[in-house]
Design brief:
15 strands, single chain, hydrolase, Beta-glucosidase, beta-glucosidase activity, alpha/beta
């Protein structure tokens, strides 16, 4: 009988409505103890079978999408953005939510290591998402803008996880809007992961943004002073997928991995998401819908650059394609498809392997493990 390694995510943005109603969820420090208790219940009930726990999936997406750009629940942002938000402050709330997510993560890790890890012999980590950021020009100020963009997306979480503190760039630019950790909180956060899950999909150009320096309307989305775009000299950074944020840039997976190795002491990494979507086109026959050659190309090129990173010493030990199946893709619903297996929504959710699934099977069969 073949044994599979389970990777279980404890929080993927599905906050119980009761906690949102009672104390506004991750805006309140009360969430930390409630999350710890929830995590401990999972460790107690399922830890004999689960050997890889992921505390949070993409805390950046939850904070930025839910509290700055209003693209995800609970759709909060500043009134002056005119995004039909449910209330909020894009200059403070994203930072507060991330702060409490980090503390909740640390609390869960602390209880797992103290009470369960020795007997259950599992590992616990966190999954972060990051784009890669390419300087818009060879000018030094654009290079610095690209580094700031990485700090404000990835370092926002990786800094506290490895040093107990936020990046100095964030502290300098955000000032007192950025919460501070107590000495004890910093100690608990520092090193609070056995492995890092990394989600990589795409890249952006980053240029220095002079316009928002000293902005009277502070906003997480502009605090990094980095103007992000996917086009330079009328040429996209890569082919666009169905999702308007996803431009194909395979070498970015190598670049972000090299960056992590150098800056964060080469942690154990699993690529927990990597993939591309297409529009759900009801006019296609089933045979046509299964011919996803562009997805094969996406995976081939990303795995090529991943192999380069591994050969250069980056400590990557596993890779998950996103996704096994077509899924309900947040605010895109069923209008896009990420799966290597086609789900027929009109005929009992029957599954059909796409060409990419067959390619993956053959690819894995040829590898030497």
């Amino acid at each position: 009988m073949q044994v599979y390694n389970q990777f279980v995510t404890l929080f993927h943005w599905d906050l119980p409505q009761t906690l949102e109603t009672e104390y506004r969820g991750f805006l309140s420090p009360r969430i930390v103890n409630d999350y710890r208790d929830y995590a401990e219940l999972c460790f107690k009930e399922f830890g004999d079978r689960v050997k890889h726990w992921i505390t949070l999936n993409e805390p950046w997406s939850y904070s930025a999408g839910g509290y700055a750009s209003a693209t995800l629940a609970p759709w909060r942002c500043s009134d002056w953005q005119h995004l039909n938000c449910t209330g909020g402050d894009s200059g403070t709330e994203p930072y507060l939510v991330s702060h409490n997510q980090l503390l909740a993560h640390a609390a869960a890790v602390e209880v797992y290591k103290a009470k369960y890890q020795a007997s259950q012999k599992g590992l616990i980590g966190i999954t972060l998402v990051s784009h890669w950021f390419v300087p818009f020009s060879q000018k030094k100020y654009d290079h610095h803008a690209a580094l700031r963009a990485v700090d404000f997306m990835f370092g926002w979480f990786m800094g506290p996880l490895t040093t107990g503190e936020y990046p100095s760039t964030m502290r300098s630019l955000v000032g007192n809007r950025l919460p501070k950790f107590s000495k004890k909180q910093s100690q608990i956060l520092n090193g609070s992961f056995d492995f890092l899950g990394l989600n990589y999909y795409t890249a952006n150009y980053a240029a220095h943004d002079k316009a928002h320096h000293g902005n009277a309307r502070p906003n997480y989305l502009t605090d990094a002073l980095a103007s992000l775009t996917t086009v330079r000299n009328d040429i996209p950074i890569g082919p666009r997928a169905a999702s308007d944020w996803l431009y194909v840039y395979p070498r970015g997976i190598r670049d972000i991995l090299f960056y992590i190795k150098k800056k964060y002491n080469n942690p154990l990494i699993y690529i927990t998401e990597n993939g591309i979507d297409e529009f759900n086109d009801p006019t296609l026959s089933l045979e046509e819908a299964l011919l996803d050659t562009y997805r094969i190309d996406y995976y081939f090129r990303h795995l090529y650059y991943l192999q380069i990173a591994i050969k250069d010493g980056v400590n990557v030990k596993g890779y998950f394609a996103w996704s096994l199946l077509d899924n309900f893709e947040w605010n895109s619903g069923y209008t896009v498809r990420f799966g290597i297996n086609f789900v027929d929504y009109k005929n009992g959710l029957k599954r059909h392997p796409k060409l990419s699934a067959r390619w993956f099977r053959n690819f894995l069969a040829k590898q030497n493990y």
